[in-house]
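Predict structure. Chain length: 388.
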Amino acid sequence: MDKTKKDIHPRQYLNMFTKLEKGTYPEFRGYPKVIIDSEAQKLTDLKKDLEDIELVEAKSLLNKKKEIDKLLDSDLENIERKRLFEMKKACNEKLQDQQVQAKEHLQRLAKLRQKFDEHQAKVLKYSKSDQLRKRLESKEMLCSEIETNQKANDYQAEKSKTLLLQHYSELMRHKMQIEALLQDESSSLDDSHLYERARKEHRGILKQIKKISECPDAEMLIRQYNVVSSLVAMEDLIKKVESALAKELSNEYVDLVKSESCLRNIQLQSETKQLETEVNNILNALSKSKFAESRSKLSKDATSNTPFSISEEESNLKHHIINYGANQYPDNRRGQEVSLFSKRSNPSAKNTSEKRTIEDAKIWLRNDCWKKKVTDKSVRFSCSNMNT
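Prediction complete.
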């Protein structure tokens, strides 16, 4: 038996039976209830132990979870801190870069501003010189234009002056012829006598022009005197024609000499009409030249900044021109008075030649209308001269 192996030795079956240990044991009563109770007690104890173990494990798990959460939070905080630190570092680096770029931009702006100031100074210098050059050129052009306009105006004034003198002498000659015809002295008055009287009148006009030429505003006053003298001559001529027509209406046209004188008066009247139209044309040309001269004077005053003043003598002369037509003929019903006077002076003329008196009345009305037109034109022309 001693030589048999342990695997096949029967002693191995004895290992299943254990020895009782020495000690106190409970009473062995009520078998198997005691064993069942003890087993049940053991099971309850085991359940309690398991519950306690589960509670401990749950507590330990909670603690571990809390620790893990704390660790995670600490890790997250560390990560966040690292990220914030890196962001702060990156922002500081970017800020430093931006500051460096801003300094570079400021330096470039300062250089550009310096260049701009230099260029602006050059441009201002060039523009000032260019403006001065343009002003000088414009002043030279204005001076040349003023000189040419002044020469043209002087030439036009001289031309109109000579034409006015010529027409005035012709008007005086016709006036004297009409006076000679009205006084029935046409045979005694020859051309030489008329020429002498016209020459005297011309000398008187030249004396007046010489007196006026001594004034400071000589050219303007001479032109105005020419206009006034021509208007006065025309008004005198119209008066003579009206008186002649009134006398002719009051007398009978029986005598052949008187009829010839009437025809000659009508012819002279037509000539005076032609002269009146020519004088009106000359007056219009004179007004245009005067307007151009006033424009040239205004341009001169604008360039030299000197005020334009009118002398007292010139203003009085203009006032005389305006009030001339109104003072010369205050009554507009003059033709009616003349016709009534002619009818009262010679009542037999109506019975002898009724047709001729009707024709003469038509001629008288035509002449009266012509006279009114001339006076209106003279007043309008004087007013236009004052306005210009």
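Summary: Confidence is low (pLDDT under 50) at residues 185-189, 305-355, 369-388.
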